[in-house]
Specification:
By secondary structure, this protein is of the alpha/beta class. It contains 14 helices and twelve strands. Strand 10 and strand 11 form a beta hairpin. The model has no long low-confidence stretch (mean pLDDT 98). It binds the ligand C[C@H](O)[C@H](O)[C@@H](O)C(=O)CO and manganese (II) ion. Pfam families: RhaA (PF06134).
Amino acid sequence: MTRLIEQAFDLAKQRFAAIGVDVEAAMQQLDTLPVSMHCWQGDDVRGFENPQGTLTGGIQATGNYPGRARSAEELRADLDMAMSLIPGAKRLNLHAIYLDSDEPVDRDAIKPEHFSRWVSWAKQHQIGLDFNPTCFSHPLSADGFTLAHADDAIRQFWIDHCKASRKISAYFGEQLGTPSVMNIWVPDGMKDLTVDRMAPRQRLLAALDEIISEKLNPQHHIDAVESKLFGIGAESYTVGSNEFYFGYATSRQTALTLDAGHFHPTETISDKISTAMLYVPRLLLHVSRPVRWDSDHVVILDDETQAIASEIVRQQLFDKVHIGLDFFDASINRIAAWVIGTRNAKKALLRALLEPTAQLRQLEVQGDFTSRLALLEEQKSLPWQAVWEAWCLRHDVPADASWLTKVRDYEQQILSQR
Ligand SMILES: C[C@H](O)[C@H](O)[C@@H](O)C(=O)CO
Ligand SMILES: [Mn+2]
């Protein structure tokens, strides 16, 4: 098998060299692009604060596949398994409800010490951590409002939670030597016709300003804000809309988060990257797969995933775009879900790096759209898969679907005992 992969790789290198693409350079570039895996695929967004509670905030993990992680130890073991099957650089994205504490702590009182075991684990794996305040699945978010809440005390509780989260994020960055991107997403919105659409937005704006008022070291912490079109039970009005956060991120120069599932079904985030990059210093991507709505299906190698990766590579946005994932499927093996989705994100990046972009750009400038389309289509069938498999071997992970056997073994030995 290894020999076959090496032979195919040598031939593939020659085929790509013939269209002016340096395969080794592409692989080296790919090595520098971490994908931030989201912890919440492993337990259906339950967390360890109150795992028996209901998932609220207008999001849903459907399915009841056996074996979800029930503790931080189990989640870390599952991540170890998944990460061992995914090539190249990775990070882990934690939500605040994944605190690893021996006693109960409310959200406004979370501290770095409640995440110290995650930091030790990240150090062992030499990976960075990212963070999210969790503004849902809590009694004080039960009426659908958090940072835009009309009640001063409730709003302050969520402001304090986000402030506490920034400290944790900065601690991650300081401990691990790579900035933690902290994403603020709130579910605030209304189910039905809304009369005052302005006041909640004014409150959200002021709350965010208070949250980011303390200057933190950008080497340790990066603020990001995430919009949404609608959530379940908030179909008529979302306070943090795209326009709201686009304005916020451009005026405050925070990073802007684009979640592939948070727009109208005919809108794509790949087309928003070049606009947003004109106004904000950084983007955080939540690569996901919407099916009719923000369904958070596992990422596949579809046209939009490819288009997102191609935008990053064509515009050379390597230092400005943070690539994260956001899906949670409880109807299939959760470790397989991580492996499939993360490998696909990386496959899309590799394919983008193997594109003869300079030549295509030249054709576009010349107005030769026939050749542009012809070459774009021809390169889809160049042997990128041979390069992918060789890259997997270099990273000592299964090159083909044999990773599934390892997941099945783990399922039989570990997950089925839970
Ligand atoms: C867990 C959430 O899905 C996530 O934090 C948020 O990014 C989101 O996309 C909500 O729809
Ligand atoms: Mn998201």
